[in-house]
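Subgroup meeting minutes
Present: P.N., E.W., G.H.
Scribe: E.W.

1. P.N. recapped why we're keeping a running log of single-chain structure predictions: easier to compare across weeks, and new members can see raw inputs and outputs side by side.
2. G.H. added today's entry (87 aa).
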Amino acid sequence: MPKAIRITIGDTTLNAELKAYQTAVAQKPQVIVANKMDLPEAKKQMTRFLRHVKVEVAAISAQTGEGIPALLKAIAKKLKRFKSDDE
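Output recorded in log:
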């Protein structure tokens, strides 16, 4: 039986650390990824998590590969948009 899924709502800790390191890094595009979507409770927990965040979240399973192609497309799209903004 897998351990309970821990959900951390919000990204304030990570972004605060990034900002403390370098403000420009914290302002770069971010991709939020929810892993372990192959676990039985994951979809229920994901629904709960999405109620609390206002950003796009990529749902994947590293074990099964579910969602990986969509994640790669989302990353490529963000990078392309980011590169266009910098030019």
